[in-house]
Amino acid sequence: MWGRNKRPNTIPSKPDVQKLRGPSAEASRLRQMWTEAVETYLEEAPPASSLQARWDQVSALCREKAVQICGVLARRTGAPWLAEKETEVKQLDTWISEAQEADRQIRNNPHNLPPEEWTQQKRRKRHQLQAARQHKAQTLQQWEENWLTQQAHLADQASARHDMGTVFRIVKDLANS
User: Is the Cα dihedral 123, 129, 132, 136 positive or negative?
Assistant: First the structure.
């Protein structure tokens, strides 16, 4: 009942239509390729049984040709404020792993320390583990706050320029994060 969702992902791939935008030679070439592919298919397509069926056929064709020509839009996963911070996150995880291992080892009293000294060592290693975890949590929170502040500044600047397209893109990015 609470297991994994067994339904297949039926969401169609989104074409990377950003490649078609702009005045560049590459964008122009891709637009030309897409237009020719769609027009060729439409000239050769069998007639549809109804207007709705024709519309569905044309819509599917446009998407299919865009995916073939532009490729699939890469889905963003994870928190956007962690983009390009893989090495820092790995370092934080390494510190935690090392602290966990040190904590595990001292709990077994491998050096047969006297009880008072062993208790102090256990406390010190546990404190180091908690400090490493707390440092990671604080660092991740700071990165998130910095990213959100940066997005707010970008939205303010775009709004001042009356660039509502950028403002809405930023709002969409915030909603998807």
Answer: negative
